[in-house]
Amino acid sequence: MDYKDYTAKKISELSGIDIAEIKKLIETPPEQKLGDLAFPCFTLAKTMRKAPQIIAKELSEKFAGDMYIEKAEAVGGYLNFFYNKAEFTKSVIDEVLEKGENYAKSDFGEKKTVLVEYSSPNIAKPFHIGHLFTTALGHSLARIYDFLGYNVTRLNHLGDWGTQFGKLICAYKLWGDDEAIQKDAIGELLRIYVKFHEEAEKNPELEVTAREHFKRLEDGAEEETALWQKFRDLSLKEFERVYDMLGVNFDSYNGESFYSDKMPEVVEILQDKGLLTESDGAKVVDLSELNIPPCIILKSDGATIYATRDIAAALYRHRTYDFYKNIYVVGTAQALHFQQIFAVMEKAGWDWAKGCEHVNFGLVKFPDKKLSTRHGDVVFLEDVLNEAVSKTREIIEKNTPDMENKDEVSKKVGIGAVLYTFLKNSREKDIIFSWDSMLDFDGESAPYVQYSYARGRSILRRAGEIDENADFSAVTSPDEYALVTMLSGFYDAVLLSAEKNEPFYVNRYVTNLARQFNKFYVSCPILKEGIPENVKNARLMIVKAVCAVIKSALYLLGIETVENM
Predict the structure, then answer these.
(1) Which of 128, 139, 358, 412 is an active site residue?
(2) 375 flagged as catalytic
(3) Is 197 an active-site residue?
(4) Which one of 31, 100, 484, 505 is least enclosed by Cβ atoms within 10 Å?
């Protein structure tokens, strides 16, 4: 049962105010002692021609004897509602246990398609730690939108085109080692790419040769095309290994190269609409009325740029998917780029462009490291994930040497710890990489939440069979009720994460749920000798429900649970 909906409906019937308006006004009090819901009666004063205090008092009397509302208390111009704790607890726990992993799922986004573009590594370059921000965010958002009933398509817009491939082809022909490439494709391609830049500083003619190779690639030359395809296939194979570790998958790997032949149409459309003007020999769209710098569509030499390609990609996606939202999970540094292309598309009269959103995020920082592919100083993501697993294994060996399935637990906890770190704060905040906070089993971390789940599962295993005809009137203490109330808030956390494109809200929710569960565990004994059978069974059902919700919430973050720790 939806208690907020029930309360709003009854207020609407009593006041004559539309239920949708009532729902907008209903609030959640900052403290449990102030009630479960609060309704400000000030807006009713004009319609009902009474003081808010009088309205609150009269409405409170109408709720007397209600089986679901224990008390409706008038405080000033507010009406505070206190649920019948036993009925509310039974309603929440029964629903969670009945629906299991489907609890809080909805058809909110039914028949609406959401595209999520994320990860988008560059071919022949390492998948470094910086790529994890977009990958973790995008993967989580895709799961959240899917959970809310949207038709989600996951896009990996690979960086598989551009002048860098001319440089790489040149480097390969000069210094490439096929045996080394077969052993470690990305590592060897990175080595020769870095070497190219080192040598080009001494011999600028290499840049000319590189441009010639890329021109031949654009023209479809057989040798250059074969090498480009080789580099792409080898890179994808390496990327897939990392994606498998993270549990990440995509529906499309259409990269920049896919849209190369679709750009002339964009130029033609913008030209026909009279949007292109000349600036220093380049063709641009003037956006001065929006206080945005002009968007270059064609450079002075007639070449297209990223903006042209991204507009072509958006047009293709509209035609192919007829999307409701087209989300780009790309770093904050590209904010102006997306402002420009979205503005150009709207100027072109494409109403669907309003569904395009840039979901930006901050930087990953190491105290003593900078990330730069060109100079070879880079932190490989696969190395970070392997080290996280290794460090977790060390902690388990030290604290729980007799644990079974150490490898499986170490992998899930270690990788979960890394993912959690990238999703625990607002996405616009920079991340300072720290192993200590990441693998803190007692702090704000994935291991802490995963341990809470494992603790709950351990309790349930030791308890054996549960009598699910529980008497919930016996479990209405503050810690028990606070835990049940938190369970009821899962849907709101998921919906808020989608509205703000911020998985952080689900992350914060599940962390607070784990904290409240551990508080409940300490203050409300479950299997202790002497606990009445009805209390034990009711508490076990609460534990079972908590485990179900923790597992679902972690899934939305891309994090797996473990049965024991």
Answers:
(1) 128
(2) no
(3) no
(4) 31
